[in-house]
Amino acid sequence: MNTAPVADTRQDMRLVPAAVVCWLAALAGLLSGWWTAVAIGLASAVLAVLVLWRARDHPRARDAAAALLVLGLLAAGPISWRIRDAQRDELRTAAAEGLPAVLRVTIAERPKPVRSAGYADRQAGARSVVLAADVRTASVDGRPVPSSGRVLLLAPVDQWTSLLPGQEVTGTGLLMPPRGADLTVAVLSVRGPPADPGPSPWWQRAAAGLRAGLHDLCQVLPDEPAGLLPGLVLGDTSALSPRVEQEFVAAGLAHLTAVSGGNLAVICGAVLLLLRLLRLGPRLSAAAAGTCLAGFLVLVGPEPSVLRAGVMAAVALLALALGRRGSALPALAFAVCVLVVADPAMATDFGFALSVCATGGLVLLAPRWAEALVRRGIPPGFAEGLAIPLAAFLVTAPVLAGMAGSVSLVSVLTNVLAAPVVAPATVLGVLATVTGPWWPGAGKVLVHLADPEARWLITVARHGARAPGAVIAWPGGWMGGLLAAAVLVVLVLAVRHRRVRVLMAVLVAGALLVFVPVRVLAPAWPPRNWAMVECDVGQGDAVVLATAEPGRAVVVDAGPEPGPVDECLHRLAVDRIPLLVLSHLHADHIGGLTSVFDGRTVGAIAVGPGRSPGWAWRQVSAEATRRAVPLVELNPGERLAWPGLALDVLGPRYVPARAPERPDGTTINNSSVVLRAETPAGRILLTGDVELAAQADLLADIGNLKAEVLKVPHHGSRYSLPSFLAAVVPRVALVSVGAGNPYGHPSKSTIDTLTALGARVTRTDLDGDTAVLAGTAISRRGEPRGPPHR
């Protein structure tokens, strides 16, 4: 029998009631009004006085009551007063009216890019940044307005992304009301550059140089690891691809790219271990670790989870310097109290809640569960490896459910697989950051050493996200989080009874026996004998045409961003693509080009005669050169054939050589390659984004446009000729469109026309991936993607 000793799991709970009351008062005040914070604070103070009076002979209860009294009075006083000031700020009133304003502000946090998928001639990426700032002076509609509140600036990325915390700038724009329940009084939509920028603190300039240096060093790595490593080390996800970001969320690994206690524990632990090997005393070790801690906090920025972890680490280092035994739970409660009193907006921040809950679970639950596993004969290392991610999942699931509107069921497994490489990647990344500026060669070596760890994390996240049933939908917001918490509490209480545990084990085993064979051994998707699949790639196009050879298919367009088209091809088991056709060079058709090549051979890339926009043509040409595949041009009248599939090129019929491009992209849309495919499901007409003029050309030049299946032009926009749709007279009409898109696609008039013609209309935003089978039967995958990134 294993008799290995286990850690003492008892914790000092005296500060916990005070922290809970402080957090609850601020949360209620922000969500329901400042007066609720007053009520909760006063009620807590009264309760504390009663406990103090009755617990004169109980020191621990007396200490807890004293802390509760102090925090109750702070909640009823300073906390509620700050909430009241924010809720009554004059800028909030002006923001509700959408008035123009000129604000002189101090930047509080690093600019955060707002990324969006590409569409039309707009390249994918960040076009705006969000900056949190504190108002110094304000002028609204030409008149001065007294305000010292917090605002968010929504500004152009090129002109505002270089600003640093501590800088004063002037911004001019339109006010908008804030959306979140925090201390933000207004949002300023800025159009121009920052005016009269002041100097930034020297330490912020130094930190910015180090962050930029790490990004430069990471350029020696492939794109995905190069974007992930700064996220692991510094929480800087500005270069992280949207695909990897989504996969980390689905796999339950998103916390790895948000700097928190884990990062600080690794950094401070490494410093303390090194100084211990050098036999330095505890005070000097604590001072050195504290210096590294302060530098790291400046480097990563004042995120809520970072501040919580920083205060906890500072308390632990102080205890080390004083020679006192530290305790994680009092440090956590102290951090909550300090930060919520200093900034009540922390109470509604999901990142702060996630960090506090995760730490609480690791402190309270993980040691007890590890001890229980050890008593049952599991080796201590394995016991901790199982208990830690399970405890973290249990306590953070409600927060994640409310924040993301979903729950990852593979989180425990993926975190177990990811855990061994997180600390090495973090240490190597930090060493590369600090050595890179004065020894670039060593920095590059360290980055290369961290590359395998980053690749492993991406692999774990990708396979975890692809697992059947990896993510289940859940109500979002605070109500969804509370519902998830209630469900978990019921489950935890239920499994304490042996009969309930046996019943739940039987139910889980039965579910696995029923659903695993259905989802894995005999999946419903893809359907047998599919001829065409319209992939759900958001607001864009991607079509897959099967040949008679399994695993071999022609792809037309690649969607607006990497990832979705790759996932669609993976589900279809396509690994050979003799031809990848790009109907035209708008971003929502070429954005996913790189991911088509992931794990697949591509014979050639085909385009039409159009070469606009220029950035897109250069991107396609560069990718063809990098992949060493030919880049060919398709022209009307050409025919291409493979076993079970033939393509006739019908258009474009006319591409003006020097016609000026219209702002709405019509000229490029009308240069789309138009294909008619001969398949076992009949004729399929693929129209790209052709609009009125190009449709009229096809009607005039092609005698017979009839097809059993129509890929509806331009995502079902209103620019479709009824006579063109009537000439095709399809039995099935497929609309590729993104959920919640801002363009009004698909148009009701176009859908009504197709319905009147007797066509069966499908939409990827409602139906997900859609397959056409022999006899024009339709099969839907039924798991559409969410709204596109904006």
UniProtKB/TrEMBL annotation:
This is ComEC/Rec2 family competence protein. It holds the Pfam family Lactamase_B. The lineage of its organism: Bacteria, Bacillati, Actinomycetota, Actinomycetes, Pseudonocardiales. The chain crosses the membrane at residues 12-28, 34-53, 65-83, 248-275, 282-300, 306-322, 329-346, 382-404, 472-495, 502-525. Keywords: Cell membrane, Membrane, Transmembrane, Transmembrane helix. InterPro entries: ComA-like_MBL (IPR035681), ComEC_N (IPR004477), Competence_DNA_uptake (IPR052159), DUF4131 (IPR025405), Metallo-B-lactamas (IPR001279), RibonucZ/Hydroxyglut_hydro (IPR036866). SUPFAM superfamilies: Metallo-hydrolase/oxidoreductase. Residues 539-739 form the Metallo-beta-lactamase domain. Coiled coil: none annotated. It comes from Amycolatopsis plumensis. It comes from the Bacteria. It is found in: Cell membrane. It is a multi-pass membrane protein.
